[in-house]
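Look over both lines before class:
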Amino acid sequence: MRAFNQPAADDYALIYLTDTDEPLPATPNPATRYTHFKTIARGGKSLIQSCHDRHLKRVVCYKRLRPEFQDDPLEQRRLLREARVSAMLQHPNTVPTYELGRTRSGHYYFTMKLVHGYTLREVLDYRERYDLGQLLDVLIQVAQALDYAHSHRVLHRDLKPENVLVGPYGEVLLLDWGLAKVWEKGARGAAPPNDPTEDQPLVESSTPDDQSLTGAGALQGTPAYMSPEQIRREPGIDHRADVFSLGVLLYEILAGCPPVQGDNPGEVTRRIVEETPMRPSRLLDRGVGEAPPAAVEAIAMQCLEKEPARRIQGCAELVRRLQEVR
């Protein structure tokens, strides 16, 4: 069995006694705690960097809004919610959050564990190198993280291969809770009517041929991985929308492509709502890949049912069924 990744010796900082025993300044200055910033990724509205935490002598992940959005109240609220949701969901398959704070100019940032590895997108780009059991184990761990989140009344709503990280020691982490849906105390179903983060685009525009952009028009999510009810912006959306997205990931593991594709996000969302996808096994008739196990294919297709009541009803059930057939 091939490992997902083997860490190189210089991937991680070595630990020395001079670092562990260095005293803190008598008056710590928060403005100089983080140094040696290096950009890792740029999102639609945010910037993710690695940096050195001088207090704890380690490299961490530092997330903040891009300069043009730092004074936007809506984006500030989204970043604040993402930081707190990430911190409150303490599970082996979520990324630990270390600190939430403000810069000297008053802008929000938060720091997280920096994990080296491959995204599931990178893994799937070379899926022929891995056996099905390995890929199903990744999906099971993602489903376990979602089951934990759902038990705490949190929906992810942006599940996609780019938001799953496979680390060098077998760890699987579900990333990016920026679109997480939460409810007020005692509320069920629709989000509070005064929540301005609902039904707002995450990007100003999207290119016609990019189906991976987070946001299409006023939709929140990534078109190819969204459930029909998420596309329709139904107020009663629940955890089964994430089950649908897991089904898309499972389908892609089996078939090598998402169940629905199109020339633009509008065509993709229309087809998700209106059309039943071809079974992965039928792709074999077209000379694409190998036929997947029937039991695993049946699980994927049930997750992709358009009516939530006909899907697998929760991530715990999905985990159990996958463990039985892998």
Remarks:
- Confidence is low (pLDDT under 50) at residues 8-12, 190-194, 199-218.
- Residues 29 and 215 are 38 Å apart (CA to CA).
- Residues 132-151 form the longest helix (20 residues).
- The longest strand covers residues 34-42.
